[in-house]
Amino acid sequence: MWIGKLYSCKERKKMKTVRSYNKLVNEIINLTLPYRIEIMGYVTYFDKIYPLLALKHISKMTTKTIIITSGQHGDEYYAVNILLKWLRQPILFADFNFYIFPIINPFGYEKNRRTNGNRQDTNNDANFIKDSKVPELAILYESFPQTADLVLDIHGDTGKEQTYCYEHKAEHLPSIAEKALIENDIIIPYLKTKTIYKVSVNNGVITPPKYDIGIEGFMEKLGVSYTITLELPGKYDGQKRAEGGIAIINSLLKNFKELSK
């Protein structure tokens, strides 16, 4: 795990607040949602306290559990906004248990930075373990369910004009990400190239090597059926991106539900 040096006083003074995390928290709390909102804990950077939120919907009708996370990289703020827009719609999949963690890196969100206030990347630099050296992950670990069937991590690729997914799944299961991207290509195009970042892509879906770090690695070790990272394009019309992002999330859940019958 890489931990960078703390920001100097000079760096702190130059750092600007780009968007308000407090406003975001109030927006979530004031939404009329069929989810129970909990404060998991707090992180403190530069003498400012940031509450970390969890939204939960527990159904007595199912044993299937879905985890949705977002906001790991602060410069991908629009991914958080799309998740909030998705939350505003009537709950379409009430027969699932949901654990939703809308923003894991509040400092990064506020300062428009990929890392937290300790220069740690909550997605790539840390093992998701109890007593993690990354404060956000240590708090998140205590609220995370110890079993799940689908994990969806919503990100943004700020340099791309098309969307794509990373998908890990059990070998005997079909891809639900490929179907979701194809179904919504008319709204938001998926990546048609054969490679991205020197790795192979098939209909917008990347099957990366086995995860050994972060939340995805932790959930894979627990035997989760699907672990999907959705990458939404930064260089795309904002309204269409939101519409397409919501449609893809719904398609992923619909495809998963069909397989669960």
Blueprint of the fold:
Elements: H1 9-14, H2 21-30, E1 36-45, E2 48-57, E3 65-70, H3 77-88, E4 97-101, H4 106-111, H5 135-143, E5 150-157, E6 164-169, H6 177-183, E7 195-196, E8 199-200, E9 205-206, H7 214-221, E10 226-233, H8 238-260
Parallel strand pairs: 3-4, 3-5, 5-10, 6-9
Antiparallel strand pairs: 1-2, 2-4, 6-10, 7-8
Helix pairs in contact: 3-8, 6-8
Record keyword descriptors for this entry:
23% strand; two-stranded antiparallel sheet; single chain; alpha/beta; 261 residues; Aminopeptidase; eight-stranded mixed sheet
Summarize the structure.
By secondary structure, the chain is of the alpha/beta class. The protein has eight helices and ten strands.
Task: Round the Cα radius of gyration to an integer and report it.
Answer: 18 Å
CATH topology, anyone? Aminopeptidase
What strand line-up does the widest sheet have?
A: 1-2-4-3-5-10-6-9
CATH class: Alpha Beta
Structural class per helix/strand content? alpha/beta
CATH superfamily: Zn peptidases
* Beta strand count: 10
Kindly state the percentage of residues in helix: 25-40%
> Overall mean pLDDT score?
90
From the spread of the alpha carbons, the general shape counts as globular
End-to-end distance? 40 Å
Instruction: Flag low-confidence runs.
Output: none
